[in-house]
Amino acid sequence: MLTELQTKKWTHLFNIYDTNKNGVVNKEDYELKVQAVAKLHNLSPGSTGYDEMYAQVMADWNNLQQNVDKNQDGQITLDEWLEHGYTCINSENMYETVKKEADAIFALFDRNGDGVINSEEYTGLMKAWGVSDEGLEIACSKLNLKGDNTLSKDVFKQLLEQFHKSDDPDSPGNYLFGSF
């Protein structure tokens, strides 16, 4: 079972992924995420960048749906999501997949490709994913993304692992996907 803090974080992430706010995560949510990120990155359907991102996001959806959607109805419920969260953080093999996906997630944030995430890049993607301004203000403070501070890929990966696994309420990674 996830701890109370882990449950809050994983539920928060579920709500971010549930783009259309219908109480489940499904393929439509992933397609809406692609559209939001494409708009943020000025990518048009049919362009190489768009097609690559779409293929990557849909592969992520297909993998998630195959591994998490227990009844294979094309919808991931919060219960299925939380069970997946527990399995993910307690299985080294499963968590290796998350770490590999970290590079792709980092690339979504790092719009200018300079190898770091600045506050504008961070807040831009989080807003596109539906995180509130208030949640972003708290997150930027916790992540030390105020002013000219940036996140390297290594720091991002550490924060991602803290988000998923930490039960320490003071871990800055708890706020990687906004305040919860």
Description:
This protein has 180 residues and is mostly helical. It has a single domain, classed as EF-hand (Recoverin, domain 1, Orthogonal Bundle), CATH 1.10.238. The chain has eight helices and four strands; from the N terminus they run H-E-H-H-E-H-H-E-H-H-E-H. It has a two-stranded antiparallel sheet with strand order 1-2. Strands 3-4 form a two-stranded antiparallel ribbon. The model has no long low-confidence stretch (mean pLDDT 91).
List keywords for this structure.
180 residues, mainly alpha, Recoverin, domain 1, two-stranded antiparallel sheet, 4 strands, 63% helix, globular
> Please, what is the average pLDDT?
91
How many helices? The count is 8
> Main β-sheet, in a few words?
2 strands, antiparallel
As an assembly, this protein is single chain
Helical content class: 55-70%
The CATH homologous superfamily name equals: EF-hand
**Terminal residue distance:** 20 Å
CATH architecture: Orthogonal Bundle
Estimate the global geometry from the Cα principal axes. globular
H and E string: HEHHEHHEHHEH
Uncertain ranges: none
CATH class: Mainly Alpha
According to DSSP, the number of beta strands is: 4
Q: Could you give a short description of this structure?
A:
This protein has 180 residues and is mainly α.
Topology:
Layout: H1 4-17, E1 25-26, H2 27-40, H3 48-68, E2 75-76, H4 78-90, H5 92-109, E3 116-118, H6 119-128, H7 133-142, E4 150-152, H8 153-165
Antiparallel strand pairs: 1-2, 3-4
